Amino acid sequence: MFATKNLTLIAVLFHIIGFVGILFYKPAIMQLATPWHLLLMMLFFVVAVAAQHKHIWKWIVLVFPFGFAIEWLGVHKSILFGHYAYTSVLGLSWQQVPLLIAFNWVFVLYASASLAQAFTANKILAPLSAATIATFFDWVMEPAAIKLHYWHWFQAGVPLSNYVSWWLISLLLAILWQFLKYQFNQFAVNLLLIQLLFFAIIQSHI
Q1: What is the average per-residue pLDDT within 74-81?
Q2: Which residue, of 6, 119, 131, 168, has the greatest Cβ tally within 10 A?
Q3: Is 143 exposed, middle or buried (0-12, 13-18, 19+ CB in 10 A)?
Q4: What is the model's pTM?
């Protein structure tokens, strides 16, 4: 409880600083801090979940390379999501795919599955709900991420295939989460909601 509360407060503070910096300071300078900010949030996530589930490494080992693979297919073959490319804003990349993006799949799906579990324990409804939550998160994030120059699309607007693929892939990972018998994690949900609010505010203010 103590760790969750304090990690959440720190996460809120960092996102407020990021928002103020983007809105009132120099966006280019704030972009330099983006990968470090995201890395810190992912570290908080791992620490919080590891305190509850010692075998979180299984989730990371399975989902990180999977997330990287589907992003590689998207970037190089325009398969699944559409035709898009990442910029250098998200930091260290390999094969033009930022490593943080692969880890983003680790976080978003764990958090979405946790949030879904808070509403239902039904083995069918929970994965369906988790997939819907994750896709909604992407829907809110997309326009903000484009404005922040995280990535860009080569066509006008975000294609429907992006959201369809997000939902189907998220459903698969949510089923995996359920199979591995993970449980609700408060900090993961808190961070997901913090980021959701952050992207929603960014979308409407810049």
Answers
A1: 94
A2: 131
A3: middle
A4: 0.94
